[in-house]
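Supplementary Data S3. Sequence and structure tokens for construct A.
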Amino acid sequence: MTALASVRLAKTRDVVGPVPKVKGRAMAVKHFGWLAGLLGVIWGVQVLSLLTGYTLNSWFGLVPRSLGGLDGIALMPLLHGSVGHAVSNSLPLVILGGLMSVTVRRDLLAVSAIIIVVGGVGVWVFGRAALHVGASGLVFGWFAFLIARGLVERRVVPVVTALGVGLVYGSLIWGVFPGQPGVSWEAHLFGAIGGVLATFVLRGR
């Protein structure tokens, strides 16, 4: 009887042990899988751009006040001008996207959609007559949303997150001003405006 009980106990331990790890992996996929997917698409598009000599940018990039450039409002965040450009946007996407996943969750899609639409339309209407590509508008939008949400809602988690983002990425604020050659400061500015707007549109949800 004792031996049988020991065997049953051992089997029970073998079965129960791995369950938390499975749940942990499922939770990680649920919260961060979208971010991995976004980066996968960005880098998949970057590989295609390299293979096609960046013709995708001329086809789908945002060109202000051009009907042919309207699709760039939605597609601009997926396109980049070089490997270095994609790399420079990937790290803040991971960090800020991770913070968004932890603190926003339910409204993450709505926040990102508002940032992309407001940022893209702002660049299309007011931007310089040039080809605008890159995910930095989304990065600035997330940054502005985290800061604004922490200040407006006065909740512990958003405030702590905002302070952390401010300390690490406080220098991002200078990216909304003109003066850097080859940089779409308009995308940064209107992306940030979209992030602040999203804070008030989704407040209390």
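Construct B, processed identically:
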Amino acid sequence: MMLATVVALAGSSVLRRQYGRAGWWAIPAVFVAVVFPLAAFPIAGMVLVAVQARRLRLVRAARVRVEFDAIALGELTALGLTSGLTFMAALERAGDELGPPLRDEVDGIRRRSRHVGAAAALEQADGVAQRLYLLAARATITGAPVADAVRAYVVAERDVQRATALAAARRLPVQLLLPLALLILPGFMVLTVGTALVGAAQRLGL
């Protein structure tokens, strides 16, 4: 038992070095795998699935946060337009309220606009809020109300986010099949294989 504890501690430290913070389940998972070798493969599968799922969650959360910031940029810009500011002034004020990468994008547009003009700088801009910049550039060139274009951008992006959230909710049951199977498999093996082994040992008089 002492050897199993030492191996569990060593294994959990390896997991933390390899994958970052493995979580509180690292030590008991490695301990159970050492004490019950038959459960090692299912436990290893669960650990790999959990680590990969955590990485995907972090990447997805960062992407969603940036998308929300892009919508916030549009909303703040529209608010500045309603107060009488020009689009570039409203965009600059909105960018100051947000963090990178949107703040860096707005700063780049502001610097380019001093040399090539606001419309050209907006057309050449890329990044997270590229669609907002293009809509504002077209409205500026054609003389259409820029505030209407910005509000239309915000509404469209909100609809896209809502549709994405609904699609992710519909995929959730399918994505949970594998983790649930890996959670059920160790207990199933203990109940079936373990009971059979105990019965065989009793018949053989071991």
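The chain has nine helices and no strands. The first helix runs from residue 2 to 19.
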